[in-house]
Design goal:
The protein has 156 residues and is mainly alpha-helical. The chain has one domain (5-155). 91% of the residues lie in helices and 0% in strands.
């Protein structure tokens, strides 16, 4: 193989082309690649942070849901307890009211029984006086025998 001027010219043009590319073409390309690599890394980092943030948010939501369910269960339990207490209080108040009504009815009944006895005593005394006057054939003076009638009424 002969080394001639064409080969030397091609070597020089190749060397000149390589130098030109290394001086003017290659730095912007490497800078663009480096910038693109930084953007990709930043995007990946942002995606990781977003994924971590999403995981944290989901964990927090799950925790808050658990707490909310727990609080709701506590509120329901408190409401049930309060309802039972209100029912027991209403029963107690009803028993007190029933006892009061019964006591009032017993007192009223006792009063009516006393009145009926007094009325019956008065009627029996009147009947006794009427019967005695018929037996004796004359009118017995009720005013004169008031003590005797009172005693008779007490015995009945």
């Amino acid at each position: 193989m002969d080394i001639n001027a064409t080969l030397i010219g091609q070597l020089l043009s190749l060397a000149l082309f390589v130098w030109f590319c290394m001086k003017f073409v290659w730095p912007p390309i490497t800078a663009a690649l480096a910038q693109r690599q930084q953007k990709i890394e930043a995007g990946l980092n942002a995606a990781e942070k977003a994924q971590q943030s999403l995981n944290d948010a989901q964990a927090q939501v799950a925790q808050e849901m658990t707490e909310a369910k727990k609080k709701a269960a506590e509120l329901i339990e408190q409401a049930n307890k309060r309802a039972v207490l209100m029912i027991e209080e209403a029963k107690h108040q009803a028993q007190i009211e029933a006892a009061r009504v019964k006591a009032a009815a017993d007192a009223e009944l006792e009063l009516e029984v006393g009145r009926a006895r007094d009325a019956l005593r008065a009627q029996v005394a009147e009947l006794a006086v009427t019967g005695a006057s018929k037996i004796l054939g004359r009118e017995v003076d009720a005013a004169r025998h008031a003590a005797m009638l009172a005693e008779l009424a007490e015995q009945l």
